Structure formats: C-alpha cells, structure tokens
C-alpha cells in the first residue's frame, strides 16, 4: 500500500514523465525533418538524449516511492502529438527551431512549473529543478540559433 502523501507525488511525477516522453517524440520528428548536413541535427539528438535521461531519472524516483512509472506520453499526449503532426509541418530549420522553443517553453517548462507547485516532496522537487534548469539551457541554445 502506497502512503497517501506519496500518491499525489507519484501522480505528479508520472505527469512530468509523460511530458518527457512527449518531448522525446517531438525531437524524433524534428530530427527526421532536419537534413543530415544540418549542424542542428546533432544538437537535437543531444537534447533528445537529455530528455530520455530525465525520463529515466523520473522513473527511478517514482520507483523509489513504490510507484509504477508511465511508459509513454499517455493518451492525451498521443492525441496532442497526432493533431500537431497533422496541422503543423515545420518546413525549414527556422520553423523547426520555433516549434522546439515553443515545445520546451510551453510544455517543458511552464507546464512543469505549474504542475509541481506545492505538489512534491523536497527530493522530488530538487530533481525537477535540475530537469528544469537543463530545459532552460535547451531554450537558451535554441533561441541563440534562431537569431
């Protein structure tokens, strides 16, 4: 039996984990759309690797709290991704950068900050802050490439 105070933390951590999976899949699409000769391609692969690492860290924390980690972005995440793929086709590197910045800012950072407000124990919160710092670094890099 999972203690009641952990249940809420686990739910929040799993939502964050699903968000990391959404990011991994988004970068998969970006990487596919970038030309092999693009200098952005390797950087996007590195960012995707960071997101996979964040997912692993969140999964580990969920297991430490005796929870079961999510294994995908969930139904809502899949629907959002499919709609985005249908309506939003980045055409060039600038478009891809704009989409990546929007995804990192809106879904990666802002949603995470909103989700974790007063919702986590200190160890989980420290982990999330490390992830957010790395995502802010991603956004700074993406913005520098855009300008």
Keywords:
single chain; 147 residues; mainly alpha; Ferritin; 5 helices; 81% helix; elongated
Q: Describe it for me?
A:
The protein is an all-alpha fold and 147 residues long. It has a single domain (4-146), classed as Ferritin, core subunit, four-helix bundle (Ferritin). The protein has helices at 4-33, 39-64, 74-87, 93-116, 122-146. Helix 1 (4-33) runs antiparallel to helix 2. The longest helix has 30 residues, at 4-33. The chain is elongated and about 50 Å long. This is DUF2383 domain-containing protein. Residues 9-114 form the DUF2383 domain. Pfam families: DUF2383.
pLDDT averaged residue by residue: 89
Q: Number of DSSP strands? A: 0
Full CATH superfamily name: Ferritin, core subunit, four-helix bundle
The helical percent reads: over 70%
Tell me what the CATH architecture is: Up-down Bundle
User: What structural class do helix, strand and pairing data support?
Assistant: mainly alpha
- Shape by Cα distribution: elongated
Q: State the CATH class.
A: Mainly Alpha
For the sheet with most strands, the description reads:
none
Give the CATH topology.
Answer: Ferritin
InterPro entries: DUF2383, Ferritin-like, Ferritin-like_SF
Protein name: DUF2383 domain-containing protein
Organism: Alkalihalophilus lindianensis
